[in-house]
Amino acid sequence: MTELVLRADCSRCVGLCCVAPAFAKSSDFAIDKPAGRPCPNLGDDFRCGIHDRLPEKGFPGCVVFDCFGAGQHLTQVTFAGRDWRTPGVAGPMFAALPVMRQLHELLWYVTQALTMPAARRVHPRLRMALEETVQLTSGTPEELMALDVDAHRGRVNPLLQKASELVRAQAGARRPDHRGANLIGRRMSGAALRGASLRGALLIGADLRDADLRLADFTGADLRGADLRGADLTGALFLTESQLTAAVTDGTTRLPQPPESSRR
């Protein structure tokens, strides 16, 4: 079985995230780009010409994007090393990318949950979900495009939520629930958020300096510009590298152990 790595490796991809999606001129992107057209900063070698200067050049949206290894898997496995310039490949490859990315994101979350001792009660079902999702990533382009990925997520997410509940129970009975909350720009400096659910919360520009965020669940939270200086993120759940990259941190931010690149 092919090794599956849940960390982006741009050297084994063909610049898919720089070509397939559309983006509009905004605070995240300096230009308009239609779907399927290469970004003008993409070189013939599929590498970004301004990768080390993306924020300064007006592309912070690129910095925080994470494919969880879907790009290289699609390139090297699904399409056997071919690239989108090959006749007949671009359409199926671009259509399969968002499906593969969602599957890889799910795999990342499931593998994280499997490292949590407090969630051992759901580990058997999580391992089954892991194997099922891995099998889906091995599908043909046609199978990927026909996949109801939302339905699959709907079956896996309750397991992830249960794992989160079991772990966050260690924080005690009073755990703030901010699931899906609009906390944009909210002043929460020093807030007691230990064991909080911040799943899907909008924390853009929020002031979370010195906040207690131990064991908090950050699944899908938008942390762009959130000030985490001095915050304690020890044991934080489902916090991705791209979320941390989007936030403001410094040497006083107490971080969880960095996510490992998960393999099978």
Question: What can you see in these coordinates?
Answer:
The C terminus is likely disordered. With 264 residues, the chain is mostly helical. It has 7 helices and no strands. Helix 2 packs across helix 3, helix 3 packs parallel to helix 6 and helix 4 runs antiparallel to helix 6. Helix content is 32%, strand content 0%.
Q: What radius of gyration results from the CA coordinates?
A: 19 Å
Assembly annotation: single chain
Structural class: mainly alpha
Q: Could you give a short account of the major beta sheet? A: none
Distance between the termini: 9 Å
Strand content: under 5%
Number of helices: 7
Q: Which bin fits the share of residues in helices? A: 25-40%
Rough outline:
globular
What is the element string, with H for helices and E for strands? HHHHHHH
The number of E-state strands comes to: 0
Kindly report the average pLDDT value.
Answer: 94
Low-confidence stretches: 259-264
Which key terms come to mind for this protein?
264 residues, mainly alpha, disordered C terminus
Topology of this protein?
Elements: H1 60-63, H2 70-78, H3 90-113, H4 123-137, H5 141-146, H6 149-168, H7 241-246
Helix pairs in contact: 2-3, 3-4, 3-6, 4-6
Brief description of this entry?
By secondary structure, the chain is an all-alpha fold. The chain has seven helices and no strands.
